[in-house]
Amino acid sequence: MQRRLDLDGPSNFRDLGGLPVTGGGSTRLGRVFRADRLCTLSDADLGRLETAGIRHVFDLRSQTEADDFPDRLPSGAAYTRLSMTSDETFQARTIYERIVEGEIKSYGEAEMVAGYVRILQNFGPSFARIVGQVAQGEPTIIHCTAGKDRTGVAAMLLLDLAGVAAEHVVADYALSSERRPSLQRDHTEANSLVPMLEDYGLDPAEFAPLWEARPAVMAATLEQLHDRWGGAAPYLAAVGMNDSDLEAARACLRAQGPSGPQVAVNKSGRH
Questions:
Q1: What percent of the chain has pLDDT over 70?
Q2: Whole-prediction pTM
Q3: Would you state the pLDDT for residue 263?
Q4: What residues make up the domain containing 96?
Q5: What's 57's domain CATH number?
Q6: DSSP string, 173-238
Q7: Would 29 be classed as within a structural domain?
Q8: What pLDDT digit, counting tens, does each position of 31-88 carry?
Q9: What domain count does the chain have?
Q10: Do the domain assignments include residue 218?
Q11: Which of 107, 166, 188, 228 lies at a C-alpha separation of 20 to 30 Å from 240?
Q12: Is 179 domain-assigned?
């Protein structure tokens, strides 16, 4: 099974299928994909996504991000933008301003976890909308700018709902660190974050979790999801999803048929 789609443009694009589910089986390939921004899709990429049958794209970026780098969409795909950037943790300019003002001297794993938890607190209805669409059974892409943070929280919810064990949810998140071209471009070259930090006498290593996908960050976020809400299903129920919709989404996320051998993600992004 291959989870990574080798595209000309996006470098952090992969299938949420093929991950082992507790009790046997795996998540279904070709149903839900996670990605970085789609403005870089080539014509050939669009053809590949049309062949994959993509029918819906959820864009988790702000209006400004979407305007600056508008998505290219495969024909026949509906588009929904669900901004998840009202939290200051994920507004780059706000972080820069706070650094310039001397308020922020580091941005570590604890701050990343707190930001992810605030996303869960603030955007439950948006996540319910995504899961409700997944329950329709149509191939769907979920993306943001780097495909790591906002998309990572959405992927965590879907995989937890499907019954994927924590270790595999964390491993999927960590794969974003291996998609370095996109992450490095978005967080260092384009935004000049590292030079700016150095100009202010700050150590970029103290801010690395902003552009790295550290396993400890997702592990702690997943733990918070279960400690605070009891897991993805109770969380989604609390924001209005009913049992039948949750079960439909779970069924769409899980592969049918006998289970195969459990698999682990290697450094190539393949099982």
A1: 84
A2: 0.86
A3: 29
A4: 14-253
A5: 3.90.190.10
A6: HHGGGG-HHHHHIIIIITT-HHHHHHHTT--GGGGGGGT---HHHHHHHHHHHHHHHSSHHHHHHH
A7: yes
A8: 999 999 999 999 999 999 999 999 999 999 988 889 999 999 999 999 999 999 745 5
A9: 1
A10: yes
A11: 166
A12: yes
